[in-house]
Amino acid sequence: MKKVNIFLITSKYLDNRTTYINSSLSFIKILFEKFNYTVDINYINDPDSETIKKNIDDYNKRIDYNVDNENNMFKNQLISLNENQLSNLEKHRKALQDAKDNELNIIIEDDIIVTKDYIDNIIKAITQLEKNKDNIDFLILSDFNENNNSELELLKFEFSKILVSKCCYMTNKKTADILYNYLNQIKYALRISLSKFLYENQDKLDIYIFNKCTFLEGTKIGLFPSSTKNKNFLSQNNNFIELVKITNNQIIDDNMFIEADKLYKSLEYLNNPDILHIYGLLHFKRNNYEKAQYYMNEAVYTLNKNKGYISKTNEILNNSINMNKYTQNIENLIKEKSKYSV
What we know:
- Keywords: Coiled coil.
- Residues 79-106 form a coiled coil.
- Helices cover 47% and strands 13% of the residues.
- It is of the alpha/beta class and 342 residues long.
- A seven-stranded mixed beta sheet has the order 2-1-3-7-5-8-6. Strands 4-9 form a two-stranded antiparallel ribbon.
């Protein structure tokens, strides 16, 4: 009997993701069963961030932030990793360690999203996977390399950029063991480490990717805030990207603001802190400080409510604090009696 092992990287406290991941798992399970696979779902929720904190000395021994010999593409991505990022990396290592020989091993994170727009692509992807599985060492499922082919196509991976997402990939046991050992030395967050591994092994392993989108990452489209990092870019949400482009201008004229406002209204239903934060910055650049303060404060509130990662260096938090100080200063100046008044 053919078998697929699904390893779900999850955190017990992120119960706001449960409905979505259960729906995605159900779809994936039913789809593989149609191809006569037995599906085994394994939940990986350890080590959590508290376990990492208790054993931080052990993890620090494995960390090497030296980038003297690193490619600039990766060197520029170096940050000091927090406990949540270390937890995420170690959960992936646990899944890789448990991968089985002569079976499909798919590692997914609990923010993976199946949308109706890409269901047909997913079905075609599994069909191609079934035909080619013996020739695949590693398959990227949450990113794609677009080409001119209108049909979904399985492509030999050629590294061109850091992965947009690492929320879903398939590996055989041989490659899982290699990647497990590769990740023993800690330098980058997992998405960067995985990208670097693929870059260094693209000529040594049979790595594949599709030419069209299949699975989406909930934190990259705005359904959830990031649970591991202070700054999250919604790289799979086109309207958000366009909103950021407008906000990045030094001067935002009326026409630009009208367009940005339309984009925000199309995104408002997501109630996402990253979107609220950008909209606050937009108002700040328009010198509308009260609205800027309101949306930045809402961003912090929503980030906390929706269980996003917050630390003292969080951009949303710090911009909200700075904006509060700024608006308070303006209010105080207004209240002060002018030295030129009669």
